Amino acid sequence: MATFTFLHAADLHLDTPFEGLGRVDPDLAEELRDASLRAFERLVDLALERRVAFVVFAGDIYDGAERGLRAQLRFRRGLARLSDAEIPSFIVHGNHDPLGEGWSAISEWPHRVHVFSSGEVEAVPVEIDGARIATVHGTSFGRRAETENLARRFRRGAEGGIHVGVLHCNVEGQAEHDPYAPCSLEDLRSAGLDYWALGHVHTRQTLLQGQSWAAYPGNLQGRSFKPAEQGAKGALLIQVEDDAVRQIEFCSLAPVIFASIPVDISGLEDLAQLADAMIERAARVAAEAGGIDGLLVRAELRGRGPLHGELGQRLEELRLSLDDATGGGSPWIRWDRLERSTHRAIDRERLGAREDLVGEVLRSLDGLRADPKARRAIYEEVDQAIRKGTLQRFIEPLGDEALLDLLDGVEQEALDRLEVEADPGDDEQDATGLLEVGS
């Protein structure tokens, strides 16, 4: 029985352009262009540092069939470093880089690299000192729009060691991703493998745990402000003891991360205080990420207060001042967009005392804030209705702090709908509440 670790990465999208960004200066544009390649180099460094037994790549190495020369050569050089250290690499191709499409600059890979073909599932042994510690099963996409359930082709053999399946697929029809190689959790279980190294979904998820494990590591480097692209990105380190998967460890590797942060203007008296609050919030996100080169931020200004009207005219100036304050730091922080969802100040105590619908709503919300059992009961009833027909096992339940935040959002929405009065100074731009750089 063997004890070792291996790395699981997917969706590298090497040398891909970033999506949906506003205006950026040339130096920043070049840094962003290199981010996916630097993330891959960090992955190789991690594999060498932790002396992993092997590395698996679960598809979408490249962003498209064109497969740029720079991306291909950097990928090959990284695999050569692993091969020189006697660390095997196993690669499947996905919908962005199917084997049957696109141009390749590489006719021969380093000697310990295996690229799985399309069609039948291949099973490749991994040995240490002559002993078989694992069998890696895999198959690549031969075409972009692969609609077959490829998971049903996988079957565990009688060989010793753990059995790892490498597949680019959509498990349980996750709606935010194309339905390529669709399969179910039962399909994965029935194959009898110890670990499924999955790719395609950019949000990190552990789908199965126990006798059989299955996980998406997410993409190696985020590319936009879409929810699935935000936050820390990297790979999974799989710990194997006595021929069984024991633990999955996430390793953050992306040099640049995307984040959308909310900032409440309530209680702030001037724009200087607001700027300080925004910088502090972004710095905290960067510190929590750890080891990053830079942070790209979109900020949503919320709440009620005296700054509401002033912000309608000063968003661009505020963004530029924030860039001046944080753009040259380490890590650098750049502000891509400011969104304004603020509201004019109100006398909440007076509104809560009114004998009308506004007062009744505010008093009801205050009652829920004071009664944890009542708000939990309402949440569970609504949650059960929302989850019908969805991927319930992949939806995290809300904690009590999140429920209180939700009540705050309900209050803002209720006051907007029941008590809306335009500020005298609001203009058309102010009403939209949005400034996008470069638009």
Structure summarized in a few sentences:
This protein is α/β, with parallel strands linked by helices. It has ten helices and 18 strands.
Question: What does it look like?
Answer:
The structure is a single chain. This protein is α/β, with parallel strands linked by helices and 439 residues long. The chain folds into 2 domains: 4-252, Purple Acid Phosphatase, chain A, domain 2 (4-Layer Sandwich), CATH 3.60.21; 257-436, no CATH class. It has 10 helices and 18 strands. The protein has helices at residues 26-50, 69-84, 185-190, 271-289, 307-326, 348-352, 357-370, 372-387, 400-419, 428-432; strands spanning 4-9, 55-58, 89-92, 113-115, 122-128, 131-138, 162-168, 170-171, 182-183, 195-199, 205-208, 213-216, 234-241, 244-252, 256-264, 294-302, 332-340, 434-436. The strands form 4 sheets. The protein has a 6-stranded mixed beta sheet. Strand 2, helix 2 (69-84) and strand 3 (89-92) form a beta-alpha-beta unit. Helix 1 (26-50) runs parallel beside helix 2 (69-84), helix 4 packs across helix 5 (307-326) and helix 7 (357-370) runs antiparallel to helix 9. The termini are far apart. The model is unreliable at 420-439 (pLDDT under 50).
